[in-house]
Amino acid sequence: MASLEAGIAMITFEKTGNDIGAFVHGLDLNDLPDPGLLRKALYEDHLLLVFRGLSGATSNQLLEIARIFGKNLSKYFREEDRNHPKTDEILILSNVEELGALGASAELPWHTNLAYLPQVASVALLYGELPTPPEAGGATLFADTRKAYDSLTTELQEQIENLQMVQSQGGYHVYPGEDVFGGVAPGAQHSLVRVHPVTGRKSLYCPGGRFFQSIEGMKYDDAYALSQSLLNRCTESAYKHLWEPGDLLVWDNLSTIHMREIIDPSFKRVVHVIDVLEDEMSGINRSS
Ligand SMILES: O=C(O)CCC(=O)C(=O)O
Ligand SMILES: [Fe+2]
User: Fold this and answer.
1) Is residue 11 in a domain?
2) How far is the CA of 165 from the centre of ligand 1 (A)?
3) pTM of the entire predicted model
């Protein structure tokens, strides 16, 4: 108990200064803080937590942090994409041929993880084993879709309240032109306005972008224009993460949207992805 309290006392949060996200100082991988402290910081206060200096973190340590936010981790990846030597709950995303080059060096446009599946990720984690330096691209940007929802006029909020949107993608971490799931791009319908299971706050769930398909009951052109304008609202301000080795990003995947810039392919980039699947309770212990 004493060590738990010591862990709590050491953790501090420093806002990024970009409307979303906070740097978390004082994390000890061998003495994780009270889970409730990190959950509150993520869901209520910051939506994105940035940990630095975790080079050498083991897969078990990363999974332990992920499980603070939910026990049910994604294993949706295609058999041939299970490229981590120790676990199929972590996906290695890289532009390195010997590692499968899953993810390549292309830009990854604004999206949320697993939006094209019925059970999306409630929280996602990205660990930079070998990220690119700023001059080689590969920055990851995050925007707050909860604040974007709050900023809409009441009239527009009412207009979009019950809209259902279909997102489709050529498969997780796979880019257009690549064959996935036997050539069938998965798609799923989601409410455009999403109520967060923990905070009860509403956000714009993953509007617009390359993976947008349709809004039920609307003509394509109107739906696309609406979705695109909502995406623009969401991304008016964003935090741009310039990577250092050993960085760990944890984000609320229901209330944010993210993208990754194009990478100079002459630089190697290796990051690790973990998706916490949303279940009935989002894996969240509401009592803590
Ligand atoms: O590579 C990155 O920085 C982001 C990757 C990402 O967003 C994803 O894999 O879903
Ligand atoms: Fe992503």
Assistant:
1) yes
2) 22
3) 0.91
